[in-house]
């Protein structure tokens, strides 16, 4: 990622079927869907094969990719464009500039919610892999 990309928002276009990011990738920002639809999913190893387990389908004005930013971890799920999709990618640095203006206790609440959701996702994945 270029230095410029780390401090900007950019509009990015994806074709139907494009993987926007994969679980485990390093976070480069969060995404706001301007047009189209995406599928958020986890790959789960079960019964001797890998299965894609859908967590959500999102459309216009929904965001995704926020968990890795707020939780300061790698991507917790994969995202694929279901249709031709346009997203505004908000870089981690731009996001942090805006969120830093909130009171500290708000950061604590948000981080705790992200941790709890991530723990729930991991428990679900463990159950599905049985």
What does this structure look like?
- It comes from Chitinivibrio alkaliphilus ACht1.
- Pfam families: cNMP_binding.
- InterPro entries: cNMP-bd_CS, cNMP-bd_dom, cNMP-bd_dom_sf, RmlC-like_jellyroll.
- Residues 12-116 form the Cyclic nucleotide-binding domain.
- This is Putative cyclic nucleotide-binding protein.
- With 130 residues, the protein is α+β, with helices and mostly antiparallel strands.
- The protein has one domain (4-128): Jelly Rolls, CATH 2.60.120.
- It contains three helices and eight strands.
- It has helices at 66-71, 92-99, 104-128; strands at residues 9-14, 19-21, 29-35, 38-46, 49-58, 63-64, 78-81, 85-91.
- It has a four-stranded antiparallel beta sheet.
- β4 (38-46) and β5 form a beta hairpin.
- The longest helix is centred in the C-terminal third of the chain and has 25 residues, at 104-128.
- The termini are far apart.
- The model has no long low-confidence stretch (mean pLDDT 87).
């Amino acid at each position: 990622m270029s230095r410029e990309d780390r401090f900007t928002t950019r509009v990015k276009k994806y074709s139907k079927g494009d993987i926007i990011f994969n679980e485990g990738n390093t976070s480069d920002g969060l995404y706001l869907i301007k047009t189209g639809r995406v599928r958020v999913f986890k790959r789960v190893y079960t019964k001797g094969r890998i299965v894609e387990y859908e967590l959500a389908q999102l459309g216009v004005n929904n965001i995704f990719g926020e968990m890795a930013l707020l939780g300061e971890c790698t991507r917790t799920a994969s995202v694929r464009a279901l249709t031709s999709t346009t997203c505004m990618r908000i870089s981690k640095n731009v996001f942090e500039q805006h969120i830093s203006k909130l009171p500290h206790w708000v950061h604590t609440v948000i981080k705790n919610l992200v941790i709890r959701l991530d723990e729930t996702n991991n428990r679900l994945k463990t159950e599905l892999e049985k």
